[in-house]
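S1.2 Input.
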Amino acid sequence: MSEVNGLLRAARERTPSRRAPGEYMSRAELAEAVCAWLWETTQIKYELDGHYIAKLERGAVRWPGAAYRSGLRSVLEVATDNELGFTPPGGPATLDVDLACCSTFGLEDDLVDAGDESVALLTMAEESNVGDLTVEQLHADIQRIAQNYLKVPTKPLFLRSRAIRDRAFRLLAGRQPPGQTRDLYAAAGWALTLLAWMSVDLGRPDVAESHTRTAWACADAAGHDELRAWVRATQHTAAFWQDDFGRAAEYAESGLRYAGGSSALFLASVAAVDLARTGRVDDARHALVVAKDTKINPDVNELGGPLLCTPERAEGIWSDVHLALGEAQYTADHADRGVALFEAAPHALRNYGSERMVRLQQVKARLELGELDGAGEALDAVLATPPEYRVRPLIHRISEVAAITRTDRYGTESKTRAMHEAIREFVRRPATARGRTH
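S1.3 Output.
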């Protein structure tokens, strides 16, 4: 295949090899050098390799993450991204990093085992099995888990969700009226969806996809459109955090066919983000208009927590669209409104996980606008997050902020240096909390 990004390849071939005098730097050497530079400057371990450099040179990835771009500029000794052939899709970059630091609190084995178990249950989910018990308590437990997520430690909620999933499938092995069969499938499907969402937050979107396949089969067996919509929303989220924005958009658009409650607002909004990140600017702007015009059916029962899209959560997603489109002031406006609504919400309904992500949108927007004091204030609220709630997406996003503070624009600013050091400490701390059992 011919090289699409000739500028990056040319820059690499101008750089002498550190291992073979007289030869130019190989892709593997370049990746190694970038990872070394990122470790020296951020104390974060990145997993860039020669295969990813090849994707950049082929043009398969035209806008790598901010950290990778900074490392490539430094190692190849160029001043701008344009000199390496990188072209943004209309705004700030997406993530292409796989951070090693993540707070999983002893859940690594449980995450993988639960995913494998969900795959094993797929056959049962696709069959017309029956059970013999009312599911009212199961659904009450599911709602309690959703509403308490990221307000109490994650591990007991994860284990409880798995227990509900298993109990529902055990009951489905018996006999009961068809209506209760559908209710049991719905309970199992919601539990699987929560397991998938937690798996994404704990750094394993691949495991999340195992849960969602079985959850989709349960939603079909239950004939439950709102469950179908939130399964698609969770599949979107798993694809999004694997930087597969095209597939994420497909899931969002598919889910909209079933959405009636706040899932409609969530899916319409994230579809706009996905389109913006894939460079489809006109489609993204149209999708954003559709999202802002979306009406929610108040009669739909909502679980809460991550499976509820409130106006403040939507404002945060819309700010992400504008960020991807390079519109810092609109990003700030939506993020500010979102944070104000989060702060006004009662504790029982406040989604702290989404709120932290929106505050990081505030930080990025203010950095882009040159408002360093405002950026620092917004960041301080995120830095106060207890280690047990520092989920993988939060670590990704705050690391993007760290990369921005190290750019040439801010490298000499004492305020951004302080922000960078604070983020380095924040990212390191979750790793020390692994193994907790609470």
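S1.4 Remarks. The radius of gyration is 22 Å.
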